[in-house]
Write the structure tokens for this entry.
Amino acid sequence: MTILSVLDQSPVSAGSTPAEALARSLELAETADRLGYHRYWFAEHHGSTALACASPELMIGQAAARTSRIRVGSGGVMLTHYAPLKVAEQFRMLEALFPGRIDLGVGRAPGSDTHTARALAGNATRPGLDQYDEQLLDLYGYLSGSLPPGHPFASVRAMPCGEGLPELWLLGSSLEGAKYASSLGWRYCHAHFINPDTAEAALRLYREHFEPSPFLERPIASIGVSVTCAPTDEEAEYLSWSRWGWRLAPGQFARPGVPTPEEAMAIKYTEAELDYLAYVRTRSIHGSPGRVQDRLTELGRSLGVDEFVTVTITHSHEARLRSYELLAGAFGISVEHASPADGVPR
């Protein structure tokens, strides 16, 4: 059974505003809920003129209040910026408000440039990556009320108290993320749209070295994939130029934000950029509904996953909505056949 989910980076189209991008994200969340998507994740980015969401936890509450069935969460919270207790309390609040529907996905990437990351730390030294595993252990300890007796904050409780926990996911685009997820016994989502070449090795490492945890007995994995679906292959490729051009030459456009396909195709790319563009086009999943379905089915079979967390970036909001509608139709998902919010069949 194929499970479709959404990763929303809240793209700001050139000529529009971040406020409009966030409003469109909430509209897309409502659409995904209606179409039968399983979960809806908000990404975290800072200092970007093209990606509007700096606070996934705020968007999660808004989206969960506007939907009725779909799981809503972070894809992800960049934990190295924050104290684990604060993150635990934010997601305990969300779980208390929307029980059984909240996901907490965490990552270690900065989601910003180094200067902005330093500002997020309040001029303090940002926690080193060698402390990330300790942050993850503390986060789980606060969420579950199970910090070890010798921990300096063992008596501290993340509020509000309650029985339920958000569903925990560790996000990664390298082998390191898979190592953390396997040793901690968390669910793992590999960012195939960022680093497709490490997906097979990362997922294999995760499964082979998985250690059961109090809340997860066996490994559960998904992949984040970039998808652009349109009525024809030609239109899907045309729409995809917005994402390709924005990623290749973000500083060459007259207006900030995700460019139109025409603006992206008009750029004079360097030889190196053209080489990278050729690579991206071979790895991008775009096309008519049938073609996208075939590509995802083949990818899922080769990697041994059945859940795809799909990210779609187009300049046109209408084209993005249509892409998700066509994708849902290709796989025949619907609210009636969707997985229940409190569990994924495996």
Summary: The first strand starts at residue 3 and ends at 8. Residues 342-346 have pLDDT under 50 and may be disordered. The beta strands are 3-8, 39-42, 71-78, 102-107, 167-172, 187-191, 221-229, 285-287, 307-311.
